[in-house]
Specification:
The complex is a heterodimer of chains A (622) and B (194). Chain A has 22 helices and 22 strands. With 622 residues, chain A is of the alpha/beta class. Chain A folds into four domains: 7-235, Rossmann fold; 241-368, 3-Layer(aba) Sandwich (Rossmann fold), CATH 3.40.50; 383-546, Thiamin diphosphate (ThDP)-binding fold, Pyr/PP domains (Rossmann fold, 3-Layer(aba) Sandwich); 562-619, no CATH class. Chain A has a seven-stranded mixed beta sheet. A five-stranded parallel beta sheet of chain A has the order 14-15-16-18-17, sandwiched between helices. Chain A is globular, with a radius of gyration of 27 Å. The termini of chain A are far apart. Chain B starts with a strand and ends with a helix. Chain B has helices at 16-30, 77-87, 104-109, 116-126, 136-142, 148-157, 164-174, 180-191, and strands spanning 4-11, 33-40, 48-56, 71-74, 93-97, 129-133. In chain B, strand 4, helix 2 (77-87) and strand 5 form a beta-alpha-beta unit. Chain B is an alpha/beta fold and 194 residues long. Helices cover 43% and strands 20% of the residues of chain B. Classes of the chains: A alpha/beta (622), B alpha/beta (194). At the A-B interface, strand 8, helix 11, helix 14, helix 16 and strand 20 of A face helix 1, strand 2, helix 2, helix 3 and helix 4 of B. Bound molecules: iron/sulfur cluster (SF4) (2 copies). The site of one iron/sulfur cluster has 10 residues of chain A, from loops.
Chain lengths: 622, 194
């Protein structure tokens, strides 16, 4: 154990990115919340130094960052992997214009899809757009690389990608960092020594920023030239490094996989790619020349493998490791065993791996263990609408948010979840298909409505579509941890005025839709009646449910508790809400049906009481 | 010294993340190299959640390798079963709540119910060092049932070579101002037991 002779802090990757951006003097930082990227901007806002704000969606967020850069300021845009798809339109052309103030794009991928609808590997975006990319492997690198990325952006006149993954974003590790680069409301002031912070007066430059064909053709050539210089940097700057050990076994790796490799095969020589696009061709050639047997360990797609094979070197990678999911230390170990790098019994836990399948009794029990599917919170205001939709048996085009859980048992009342803002477009399309005798419902949350539901609702009106659009307004972006959005009127940087709050109902009215219902989702009977009415009308209509999320921004407990009364016949209706407070009491009726039991986590929303048609649920009067 | 591996598990909303934060801050306070990792799916509450904490002279992987946890701290007995299978070996110390909760709709779906006694029994056969505890009432007497899991954390602290001061500082740094006192009390009850 070392005495701490230098300054360190224990930070998550996301926090370290924010600290690095602060150190680099970022002036404008934008993004749309998305797991696992959501914690970067709130942490940066704590420095009280830059303009840090949530935007309505990723495209707008990147466009704001571009504008700030045109105004000579350093800017940063944060997103989850799929969010870069939304911002890809400005992104692909920004790659041609280049920057004035540095632009750093943080894209956080989600291998294993802990909280995502796909598993795309955004490293391909760097190649696709000809934009350089950093891949940090711990929080210390997140801090260092973010600072450096701004330098690279300005010296090579290009946006820069920092490619994160859930494991890097949400892991904590020790960062070597001066206390002045940690947030402290009173201390943090501008880094005045950075020369680019000097106020510059805007001058236009249409050859750089107007990508009409005549200029774009020139800029494309510049972008291609730029790649060569970036490759030199990749080879010579020292950012990509070789750690020579045994000259028999070599591993080329990047990101968190590097850590697993060091853990499992400390004897191997390693070429660590921290700047993984463009790849350092000379370093790779040197490495494979000196080390006898070399393989590639990378998560998700064979990105590095393809790049290396494009310089004429064929190494094994995806032949050994999965092309999907997250790698784990155990998977890396298995792969290294298969590649002949380590013997089965080489290290202390390989013997234990063999015991898999040997613990039969444990395994049998595990099979019986009910799967713990994610569920809406006790008292979540989304519950009632899904319960009612299920009863009405209508096709429901759904969307992305906590309410996606309405698709899972026991609610089972949502039929699609593909992209942000899909619901209203898909509802229009499904109704055009004439495949359902019942009217279609489209459902999305308030934040998603702002993100990309408004456009499809306008399209629906414009094209005379007929479906029922449901907007679940819980006044927050709940799924990602309760971020603000245009409907809350607040944001991360101070200086927001509540009059800037956007009223969803007025937006809908502005589109010219006349049939609008605003309801309280805790009033189950009203929810059911309204839905029934809206779904039988032949118009495009909108239902807005209004109730704050019970978790964000503050935990809500209505201070009431409910109980199951003696006489309950075990019909199971209440448990069909999926409320996590309704448990199995362990008692069974004569017909073998379990008797429900409401535990103390009940927040008193009363939905289950309305749903129990036999009136066996009652508030506890103290 | 090999890295020490502690895995905390439970369900969303039980304080798994907080416990992980306290353990990692205590280890970091003592001067260890520390890595932690949170693993959870898309639910705010009710889903299975775990935090991996690793500390030692030098730690690489932020995830604990299979069957390599030194200690598993679990706030829900059903989760104990799940995680012990993946991360414990015979010598792993398992400190677990002796209760667990599964929503009715999920348990009613499975017609072959699973009892807590069955789980404890099987765990005992497979793992030598299993401690099942229920601190709900002690916590209630302290004034908040939610600190029950901090008592468990106090219990865990006895099995690490991190001194009390580092633990207390870590708790102070990790919990909200107005709950500091009760959390420290709860921690010490666990730590001073037996
Ligand atoms: S966080 Fe809010 S929106 Fe999400 S499930 Fe819980 S109550 Fe519902
Ligand atoms: S009132 Fe019923 S549905 Fe609402 S939180 Fe309590 S148990 Fe759950």
């Amino acid at each position: 154990m070392q005495a701490k002779t230098f300054h360190t802090a224990l930070l998550t990757g996301n926090e370290a990115i924010a600290a690095g951006a602060y150190k680099a003097g970022v002036r404008v930082a934008t993004g749309y919340p998305g797991t696992p990227s959501s914690e970067i901007l709130p942490y940066l806002a704590r420095f009280n130094n830059a303009i840090v704000n949530w935007s309505i969606n990723e495209k707008t967020a990147l466009e704001i960052a571009i504008g700030a850069s045109i105004g000579y300021k350093r800017s940063m845009f944060t997103t989850k992997h799929v969010g870069l798809n939304v911002a890809s339109d400005p992104f692909m052309t920004l790659a041609l214009t280049g920057v004035r103030g540095g632009i750093v794009i943080i894209t956080a991928d989600d291998p294993a899809m802990h909280s995502s609808q796909n598993e795309q590997d955004n490293r391909f975006y760097s190649k696709f757009a000809k934009v350089p990319m950093f891949e940090p492997s711990d929080s210390n690198e997140c801090f260092k690389f973010t600072d450096e990325a701004f330098e690279v952006s300005e010296s090579f006149d290009t946006p820069v990608i920092i490619r994160m993954t859930t494991r890097i974003s949400h892991s904590k590790s020790v960062v070597h960092i001066e206390p002045v680069y940690l947030p402290n409301m009173n201390l943090n002031s501008e880094n005045k020594n950075n020369s680019y912070l000097k106020e510059k007066i805007y001058i236009k430059d249409i050859e750089k920023f107007v990508m009409a064909p005549v200029y774009a053709r020139k800029r494309h050539k510049i972008a291609i030239e730029r790649l060569k210089k970036l490759q030199e940097f990749s080879n010579n700057s020292g950012i990509n490094r070789i750690e020579y050990n045994s000259l028999d076994f070599g591993i080329i790796t990047s990101g968190v996989s590097y850590q697993y490799v060091k853990e499992i095969a400390p004897f191997a020589s390693v070429l660590k790619l921290s700047f993984s696009y463009p790849v350092p061709d000379l370093l790779i050639k040197e490495f494979v020349k000196r080390v006898k047997s070399v393989i590639i360990v990378e998560e998700l797609e064979p990105f590095i493998q393809n790049e290396i094979s494009s310089i004429g070197i064929n190494l094994k990678g995806k032949e050994i490791f999965n092309r999907f999911g997250e790698l784990t230390p155990d998977m890396v170990k298995e792969g290294l065993i298969n590649a002949g790098f380590i013997k089965k019994y080489d290290n202390k836990s390989s013997g234990k791996l063999l015991s898999k399948g040997g613990l039969s009794e444990l395994d049998n029990l595990l099979k019986k263990l009910p799967q713990r599917l994610p569920a809406l919170c006790s008292g979540c205001p989304h519950t009632s609408i899904f319960y009612a939709l299920k009863k009405l048996k209508v096709p429901v085009m759904g969307d992305i948010g906590c309410y996606t859980l309405g698709a899972l048992p026991p609610l089972n009342a949502m039929d699609s979840c593909i992209s942000m803002g899909l619901a209203f477009g898909a509802a229009q399309g499904l109704s055009l298909s004439n495949s359902s005798p019942k009217k279609i419902a489209g459902i999305m949350g308030d934040s998603t409505f702002f993100h990309s539901g408004i456009t499809s609702l306008i399209d629906a009106k414009y094209n005379n579509a007929c479906f029922t659009a449901i907007i679940l307004d819980n006044s927050t972006t709940a799924m990602t941890g309760g971020q603000d959005h245009p409907g809350t009127g607040k944001n991360l940087s101070p200086g927001q005025v509540m009059s800037n709050k956007i009223d969803i109902k007025r937006v809908v009215e502005g589109i010219g839709i006349d049939e609008i219902y605003t309801i309280d989702p805790y009033d189950y009977n009203a929810v059911y009646k309204t839905l029934k009415k809206a779904l039988s009308s032949k118009n495009l209509n909108v239902i807005i449910t209004k109730r704050p999320c019970i978790l964000y921004p503050v935990k809500i407990d209505l201070g009431k508790k409910f109980k199951i009364l003696e006489g309950c016949n075990g019909c199971g209706l209440c448990m069909q809400t999926g409320c996590p407070s309704i448990l199995n009491s362990g008692k069974f009726l004569d017909n073998n049906k379990p008797v429900p039991f409401i535990d103390s986590s009940c927040i008193g929303c009363s939905i289950c009481k309305d749903i129990c048609v036999f009136n066996f649920i009652e508030e506890i009067k103290s | 010294m090999d890295a020490q591996n502690i895995l905390v598990c439970g369900i969303g909303g039980q304080g798994v993340v907080l416990a992980g934060k306290i353990i990692s801050n205590a280890a970091y306070g003592k001067g260890f190299d520390v890595k932690t990792s949170e693993v959870h799916g898309m639910s705010q509450r009710g889903g299975s959640v775990s935090t991996h904490i690793r500390f030692g002279e030098k730690v690489f992987s932020p995830l604990i390798p299979g069957q390599s946890a030194d200690i598993i701290l679990s706030f829900d007995i059903y989760e104990t079963l799940r995680y012990a299978r993946d991360f414990a070996d015979k010598k792993t110390l398992i400190i677990s709540s002796n209760y667990g909760k599964i929503p009715l709709w999920a348990s009613a779906r499975e017609n072959d119910g699973i009892s807590i006694a069955e789980i404890t029994g099987t765990l005992k056969i497979n793992f030598d060092k299993l401690l099942t505890v229920n601190k709900k009432e002690t916590a209630m007497a302290l004034g908040n049932v939610r600190v029950a899991n901090i008592i468990l954390l106090g219990l865990l602290s006895k099995f690490t070579d991190i001194e009390e001061d580092f633990w207390l500082k870590a708790i102070q740094d990790s919990v909200p101002e107005k709950t500091k006192e009760i959390n420290i009390k709860a921690f010490l009850i666990g730590r001073n037991e037996k």
